[in-house]
């Protein structure tokens, strides 16, 4: 048994304000609201890719087989053809930009309000293009209902034991096989879905991600799509939280092409990953609502100062150009549906800390690290020291109902590090369990990777850690000193890849608000 600040406060009958802090997984779980309809059914059903492979014969279902064939066909087309693989890849991001690039290229929004709706439209047109290639170019009239599969990496087998569902957290098997397998299980030509296990292909190989890395429960507990603009410090909301985890985490852990915005869409598994992200959003929408009044901008946010003034533009299977304009959340009905909106939606347990945005001017702030901190294959322990002012202020905040926010500034890397970094509080270095009371969240490196990244100067990540500090046992934090912050590399982190990527942050602070 351990004694935490929470149990001591409860034992003395103290009343602690904790607005916005979930008291249990049940309290944090989103509840269905009356009047919100289920998504409409469609002839185009997106299916779990795990169900499209015969475990006995090794045969691929037609949906997967013809996706591989279509990817191969698209790769053979010239890159300025909207139906080509590179045109669709570069619409998301392009490694080296040129003045003659089509206006559709390099437009993916990350870290802003258009992240989910833009990707929904992007996948919608990509899906139409692939379907048309299968039916028209490859002559498969029977595949007129083809839909993009999804990578259901948060699936749990009956009983909820993550160890039993490890296969779902690996790169889907057909993307690891060197040869195409037809619907009868026979091997054919080289597999366009396969990428080698290296920094130019994929880092993950045959290994599995941990369940904590892919669990969407932290995002699914959010009640608002986007943080209220009138609040100085507020929960980040569903979109930003989902983008951080599991979206960014899966990109980083898959690594290789998937590890940076400019190259991610070049990996055929990218599209299955984003189909699953869209599935999470679809499930969240059955219980929640999106903001009203949002409209697409006439000029999309720029990735570089010299980018031209352009709207969001996408191409369809006939080469037609579509400008995203008008209400942001208007989308065609019956465009597609998902095989399941309940499977793989989170285990329910979530850390006490949560992502926040905003910070009031003049709030008491105390340095945890005031110079650039480079991360490596070994844990980094940040000990702010024994300054009484900071320690007293933080302890008083925890006991009185104020909020304590841990912020990392300038989070960035030169290349994809192929691992995430887990943040913990307290001096107990043996506690590296993401299901334990000391866990805060992940530092991820995706949209902040490389000199041409949209956030090349680094991103800012802030976590409300008030409840985490309350729950820490006394051996981890006594309140007599500033809390220790530990940054721990994820499992199977490779020293060489991390050293080449040089993941880092410029400073870290505690702020009391």
From TrEMBL:
Superkingdom assignment: Bacteria
- Extract the PROSITE patterns matched here: TAT, TYROSINASE_1, TYROSINASE_2
Q: Which UniProt keywords apply?
A: Metal-binding
Single annotated GO MF:
oxidoreductase activity
Q: Where is the Tyrosinase copper-binding domain?
A: 110-127, 267-278
What is the name of this protein?
Answer: Tyrosinase copper-binding domain-containing protein
- Write down the InterPro entries for this protein, in alphabetical order: Di-copper_centre_dom_sf (IPR008922), TAT_signal (IPR006311), Tyrosinase/Hemocyanin (IPR050316), Tyrosinase_Cu-bd (IPR002227)
Recorded hits in Gene3D superfamilies, A to Z, give: Di-copper center containing domain from catechol oxidase (1.10.1280.10)
């Amino acid at each position: 048994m351990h004694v935490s600040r929470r149990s001591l406060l409860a034992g003395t009958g103290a009343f602690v304000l904790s607005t916005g802090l979930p008291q249990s997984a049940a309290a944090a779980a989103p509840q269905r609201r009356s009047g919100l309809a289920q998504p409409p059914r469609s002839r185009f059903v997106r299916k779990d890719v795990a169900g499209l492979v015969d475990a006995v014969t090794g045969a691929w279902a037609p949906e997967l087989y013809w996706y591989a064939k279509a990817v191969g066909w698209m790769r053979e087309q010239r890159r300025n053809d909207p139906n080509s693989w590179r045109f669709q890849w570069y619409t998301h991001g392009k490694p080296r930009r040129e003045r003659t690039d089509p206006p559709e290229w390099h437009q993916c929004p990350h870290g802003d309000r258009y992240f989910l709706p833009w990707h929904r439209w992007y996948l919608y047109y990509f899906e139409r293009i692939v379907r048309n290639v299968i039916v028209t170019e490859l002559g498969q009239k029977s595949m007129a209902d083809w839909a993009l599969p999804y990578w259901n990496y948060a699936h749990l087998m009956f009983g909820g034991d993550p160890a039993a569902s490890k296969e779902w957290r690996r790169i889907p098997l057909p993307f690891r096989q060197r040869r195409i397998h037809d619907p009868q299980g026979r091997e054919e030509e080289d597999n366009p879905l396969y990428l080698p296990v290296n920094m130019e292909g994929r880092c993950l190989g045959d290994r599995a991600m941990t369940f904590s890395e892919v669990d969407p429960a932290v995002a699914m507990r959010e009640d608002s799509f986007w943080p209220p603009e009138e609040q100085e410090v507020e929960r980040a909301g569903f979109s930003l939280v989902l983008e951080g985890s599991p979206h960014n985490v899966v990109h980083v852990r898959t690594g290789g092409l998937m590890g940076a915005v400019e190259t991610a869409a070049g990996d055929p598994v990218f599209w299955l990953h984003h189909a699953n992200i869209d599935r999470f959003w679809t499930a969240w929408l059955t219980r929640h609502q999106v903001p009203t009044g949002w409209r697409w901008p006439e000029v999309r946010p720029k990735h570089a100062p010299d980018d031209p003034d352009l709207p969001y533009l996408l191409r369809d299977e006939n080469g037609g150009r579509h400008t995203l304009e008008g209400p942001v959340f208007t989308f065609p009905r019956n465009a597609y549906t998902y095989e399941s909106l309940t499977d793989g939606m989170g285990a329910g347990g979530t850390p006490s800390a949560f992502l926040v945005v905003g910070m009031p001017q003049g709030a008491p702030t105390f340095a945890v690290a005031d110079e650039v901190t480079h991360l490596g294959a070994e844990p980094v322990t940040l000990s702010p020291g024994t300054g009484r002012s900071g320690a007293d202020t933080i302890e008083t905040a925890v006991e009185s109902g104020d909020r304590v926010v841990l912020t990392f500034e300038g989070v960035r890397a030169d290349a994809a590090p192929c691992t995430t970094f887990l943040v913990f509080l307290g001096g107990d270095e043996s506690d590296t369990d993401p299901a334990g009371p000391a866990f805060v969240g992940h530092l991820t490196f995706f949209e902040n990777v490389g000199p041409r990244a949209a956030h090349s100067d680094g991103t800012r990540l802030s976590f409300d850690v008030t409840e985490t500090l309350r729950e820490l046992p006394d051996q981890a934090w006594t309140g007599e000193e500033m809390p220790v912050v530990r940054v721990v590399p994820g499992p199977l982190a490779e020293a060489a890849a991390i050293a080449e990527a040089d993941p880092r942050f410029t400073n870290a602070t505690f702020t009391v608000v």
